[in-house]
């Protein structure tokens, strides 16, 4: 089947979907609300059907789809505007223009997302079908960009759909998209680290602290790459050492030393959420031990104020564990200690720069 036949079939399928959707909407609104739109869509689609000895004028159809899309957006009918963009994307596919196809698919995804957001604001009950369509469109555009080696744009779309999924409470899916974005940005350490940090934030909100620590290890691998670029030997992640102390000394002064400081604080607070036995077995345990000692080793990449704050949190957590161990019936649960660490983790998001200033 050639491109024109595929185009004709796909447009016919889209016309059927829109006609069904419009019929439902027209029944609710008296039958005349969007009859003009459906007639316009059919007119444009008819121009794409094969004629004897004449090829369809695809470029003209794209322009007319664009005009129809603008009209629908002005009317606030974002769902149907998205279907029109998908029809325009298929026209670009028939022209072997993957960039234009991806752009139209992305716009369709954004319109589906706007439609779902409107439904959420109006508290409509449903199955989030517009959200599902939006994610499918984003993933199609990502595949197109990856196919033409535009990985940076694909990573941007992963981040965009992840941020949207967070708004709808789909944190697990959002974390997956952030991780995929980081994987596509392997050659760019700073953006990849930022993507992993976003994924880690989703894991923390899901209370998946072990998963967040695994993502933190991937961040350390990127920092180790920068560490090696300065002529240093690679870190051995199989033997537990103070990785953050080594990387912080090696990468200062630079933006990466700030990342080391931020990662160290996150690692400490995440470890405090784990059982004591798991803390001692974890590869970040050496860094945690540094904060367990009063007057511990001073590291230059962490401000003195932040170091004292973190040491106070660690020691307070240690005391609380001893209280829980000695009086298990008086203290109902370990939730107070965990909540205390969670509060500190939130504080850490805005106070982990080298000089102690806010990074928000």
Structural topology:
Elements: H1 3-29, H2 35-46, H3 58-75, H4 78-94, H5 98-121, H6 129-147, H7 151-167, H8 171-184, H9 189-205, H10 209-229, H11 243-251, H12 255-271, H13 276-281, H14 285-292, H15 304-326, H16 335-348
Helix pairs in contact: 1-2, 1-4, 2-3, 3-4, 4-5, 5-6, 6-7, 7-8, 8-9, 9-10, 10-11, 10-12, 11-12, 12-16, 15-16
Strand content: under 5%
DSSP strand tally = 0
Write down the secondary-structure element order.
HHHHHHHHHHHHHHHH
Radius of gyration: 27 Å
The portion of residues assigned to helices is over 70%
Structure description:
By secondary structure, the protein is mostly helical. Helices cover 73% and strands 0% of the residues. It contains 16 helices and no strands. α6 (129-147) packs antiparallel against α7 (151-167) and α15 (304-326) runs antiparallel to α16. The protein starts with a helix and ends in a 12-residue tail after the last helix. The relative contact order is 0.05.
Short summary:
The protein is mostly helical. The chain has 16 helices and no strands. Helix 7 packs antiparallel against helix 8, helix 10 runs antiparallel to helix 12 and helix 12 packs antiparallel against helix 16.
Keywords for this entry:
mainly alpha, disordered C terminus, 360 residues
């Amino acid at each position: 089947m050639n491109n024109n036949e595929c185009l004709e079939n796909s447009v016919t399928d889209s016309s059927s979907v829109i006609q069904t959707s419009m019929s439902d909407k027209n029944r609710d609104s008296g039958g005349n609300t969007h009859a003009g739109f459906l007639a316009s869509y059919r007119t444009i689609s008819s121009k794409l059907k094969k004629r004897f000895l004449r090829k369809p004028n695809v470029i003209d159809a794209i322009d007319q789809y664009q005009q129809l899309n603008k009209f629908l957006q002005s009317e606030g009918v974002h769902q149907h505007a998205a279907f029109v963009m998908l029809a325009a994307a298929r026209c670009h596919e028939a022209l072997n223009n993957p960039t234009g196809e991806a752009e139209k698919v992305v716009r369709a995804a954004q319109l589906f997302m706007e439609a779902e957001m409107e439904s959420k604001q109006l508290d409509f009950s449903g199955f989030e079908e517009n959200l599902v369509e939006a994610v499918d469109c984003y993933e199609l555009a990502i595949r197109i960009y990856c196919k033409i080696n535009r990985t940076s744009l694909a990573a941007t779309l992963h981040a965009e759909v992840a941020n949207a999924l967070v708004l709808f409470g789909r944190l697990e899916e959002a974390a997956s998209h952030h991780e995929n974005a980081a994987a596509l940005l392997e050659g760019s350490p700073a953006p990849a680290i930022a993507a992993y940090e976003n994924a880690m934030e989703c894991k923390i909100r899901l209370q998946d602290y072990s998963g967040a620590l695994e993502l933190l290890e991937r961040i350390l691998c990127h920092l180790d790459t920068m560490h090696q670029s300065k002529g240093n030997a690679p870190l051995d992640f199989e033997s537990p050492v103070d990785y953050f102390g080594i990387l912080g000394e090696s990468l200062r002064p630079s933006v990466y030393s700030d990342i080391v400081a931020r990662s160290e604080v996150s690692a400490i607070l995440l470890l405090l959420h784990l059982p004591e036995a798991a803390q001692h077995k974890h590869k970040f345990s050496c860094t945690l031990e540094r904060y367990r000692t009063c007057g511990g080793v001073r590291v230059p990449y962490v401000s003195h104020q932040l170091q004292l704050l973190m040491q106070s949190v660690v020691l307070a957590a240690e005391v609380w564990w001893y209280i829980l161990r000695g009086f298990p019936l008086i203290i109902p649960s370990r939730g107070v200690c965990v909540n205390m660490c969670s509060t500190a983790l939130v504080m850490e998001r805005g106070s982990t720069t080298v000089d102690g200033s806010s990074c928000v």
